[in-house]
Amino acid sequence: MNRKWKVAVIATAVLLLAGAPVFARSGQLNVVKPAIADRDLVIRISELTENAIFYPVDIEGTRLEVLAVRAPDGTIRTAFNTCQVCYGSGRGFYKQQGTVLVCQNCGNRFRMSQVEVGSGGCNPVPIFPQNKTVTDTTITISRQFLTQAKAIFARWRRG
After folding, report:
1. What span, in angstroms and rounded, lies between the C-alpha atoms of 56 and 60?
2. Domains of the chain, with CATH numbers?
3. Is 44 in contact with 135 (CB distance < 8 Å)?
4. I want to staple 41 with a disulfide (CB 3.0 to 4.6 A). Which of 37, 138, 141, 156 is the partner?
């Protein structure tokens, strides 16, 4: 192995051991985008596929996360990455396994077609059309709306 290759392998191992998010290529699961802080979240529709993408947002010192995905019917779905029942546990967040989202606290599984459909119960917290602005190219979730959601992320810790 040449020196540059060894350095790249060691650097990747250090980041993984430190718990840093891994930014994957298209088609891979559990892609986490770079965090933004105290502003509107703008998601490019062109980057969305059947694999959920996670968008961290820091609002006034509280870490939130939005997930966005293209459902099998082609519609774009958005939700907060926290379970409506398990959010208080701090572990009520989702990871994609295969074609479903799995709550890391209770283990409930949700198909992408279920995201943004229901409110209440053990579901990802939906971000309904009235809470976002959708154009041909982007979805914008306002800082004001994100600020209103801070309470459900007070104990949240992704891991």
Report:
1. 13
2. 22-153 (2.102.10)
3. no
4. 141
